[in-house]
Design goal:
5 helices; elongated; 116 residues; mainly alpha; 0% strand
Length: 116
């Protein structure tokens, strides 16, 4: 198998691909399409932990991929940037869902306490 002269010296930017995969997995976990419903699956501790873990992997690998793309001249710089942004959006989403569920639980606790 021969390689073309243009791609012979270029290597793949594996951190960029890892960050993109982790960002995609985070979006899948955030959408709740892993096992069903939106709030019940998204707020379960396992799914929320996987969402945050995927987001952190996307952010860290994205920064490594951007540095590698700049230093070695390989492609994947914009893919890494997109993965970093998606990773931060997934963390923001996890925090907002957590606050929403805690607010609903606190509101129900107040309603139950005032009724009894």
């Amino acid at each position: 198998m021969s390689t073309s002269p243009q791609t012979a010296g270029r290597t793949r930017n594996k951190p960029a691909l890892v960050s993109a995969s982790a960002a995609l997995a985070g979006v899948v976990y955030a959408s709740g399409s892993v096992m069903g419903g939106w709030l019940t699956v998204t707020y379960s501790a396992a799914i929320l932990s996987l969402l945050i873990l995927c987001a952190l992997v996307a952010i860290i690998a994205g920064h490594i991929g951007r540095r590698r793309a700049k230093k070695h001249g390989v492609e994947g710089r914009w893919l890494s940037l997109a993965s970093i942004v998606v990773g931060w959006l997934c963390i923001l989403y996890a925090v907002l869902v957590n606050l929403l569920v805690m607010g609903i639980v606190a509101g129900l606790a107040v309603l139950v306490d005032s009724a009894g």
